[in-house]
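To illustrate the input format used throughout this study, we show a single complete record. The first block contains the structure-token representation of the backbone; no residue identities are included at this stage. The design step must infer an amino acid for every position from geometry alone.
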């Protein structure tokens, strides 16, 4: 590995670490319990991270959680917006993850056929 390759690897790692920091427009939560991992959640997460990087999308925070309780629907991704809206996607494969990035995270459009739930959290009173 030469110096240029190391620099590129470092830059990619820094971008991926930035995805775990808060205060972004979207927060993507991956269900990474035992059933999620067995259903391919790691591959789905890798595909989504690669697609976010490829498209230069930086307004997304990435997080993981344990079992959500919908074992038959794994892998599950929940997208939480700053506005309080939450959209849950089920049975997500790597191709679907790339589509979610292109449509939902880049254009703001919920991907019909993959979304299984959508709620709007009430705004907190100050």
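Output of the design step:
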């Amino acid at each position: 590995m030469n110096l240029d390759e190391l620099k590129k690897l470092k830059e990619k790692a820094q971008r991926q670490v930035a995805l775990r920091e808060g205060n972004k427009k979207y927060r993507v939560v991956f269900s990474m319990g035992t059933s999620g991992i067995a259903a391919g959640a790691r591959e789905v997460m890798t595909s989504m991270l690669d697609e976010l990087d490829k498209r230069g999308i930086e307004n997304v925070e990435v997080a993981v959680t344990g079992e959500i309780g919908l074992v038959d629907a794994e892998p599950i991704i929940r997208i939480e917006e700053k506005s309080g809206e939450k959209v849950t996607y089920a049975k997500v494969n790597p191709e679907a993850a790339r589509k979610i990035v292109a449509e939902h995270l880049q254009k703001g459009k919920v991907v019909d056929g993959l979304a299984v739930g959508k709620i709007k959290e009430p705004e907190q009173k100050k």
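Structural context for interpreting the output: The two ends are 54 Å apart (CA to CA). The chain has a mean pLDDT of 84.
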